[in-house]
Amino acid sequence: MTTLLKVDNITVHYSRLAAVRNVSVDVSEGEIVCIVGPNGAGKSTTLLTISGILSPTEGTVTFGTKNITGANPENVARMGISQVPEGRHVFTALNVEENLRIGTRMRRDRGEIEKDFNMVLEMFPVLAERKRQSAGKLSGGEQQMLVIGRALLTRPKLMTIDEPSLGLAPKIVDRVYEVLTDLRNRMGLTLLIVEQSSERALKAADRIYVLRSGQIQLSGNAKDLRDGEKVKQAYFGFTEGVKHVGEVAF
Q: What is the pLDDT of residues 70-122, one digit of tens each?
């Protein structure tokens, strides 16, 4: 498979504190890749660095053939990376349709926008039913669908999603992941997802990275890690050093 995103040995500081150290992540076209780890592991920092909101003090980020290290976030978005942030971040003063159309503001292909807008409404019928309703009155699960739909309207090549299950009931989380898997299967969309729940990630992902204390502790194919034991060991710190399951011996 063709590598779409390559994060190569990035180190990112907040003042003097290194939030991530020598983190490397590869994502191939059409993959679902999950980064899992406890609170404070550096997961969100990694996504913010990919999207250009943070700049690494060391290392590079490459998207396709372009070095996008430290690029302006708007330029990163124009290249085809759309981020769904943690906490959903809907514009509560706007209605559902207005929130969705924010995703089209950088596009110039006006003839295709309405087609894509209608596709999103077909994909998320609840948004079609409530498109005149204030986004702030939607449930948590509906807001998650809204921000995913808004991100889709940018026509991304890669969607990064930060904690899509945060604060949602298990049945709603199941539905969110059904939608994300369907996007990959139907549209070939590439997904990089940050999750606290390793169990959820193992069900959805093609490949897994476990991040703890700002460093990658484990990486490998999800099917090779499905029993969860190696992930648990890396997640809670029962092992030392980076392990690559399915690539070299664990």
A: 999 999 999 999 999 876 689 999 999 999 999 999 888 888 999 999 999 99
Question: Which tokens belong to 227?
Answer: 């029993």
Beta partners for residue 32, in sequence order: 191
CA distance 82 to 94: 21
Closest listed residue to residue 149, CA positions, set 103, 80, 114, 94: 103
Question: Shortest CA distance to 57 belongs to which of 13, 22, 23?
Answer: 13
Q: Is 64 helix (H, G, I), strand (E, B) or coil?
A: coil
Q: Top-level CATH class of 80-190?
A: alpha beta
Distances, alpha carbon 132 to alpha carbons 96, 147, 218, 236, in Å: 6, 16, 45, 45
- 81-91, pLDDT tens digit by residue? 999 987 668 99
Confirm whether pTM is higher than 0.70. Answer: yes
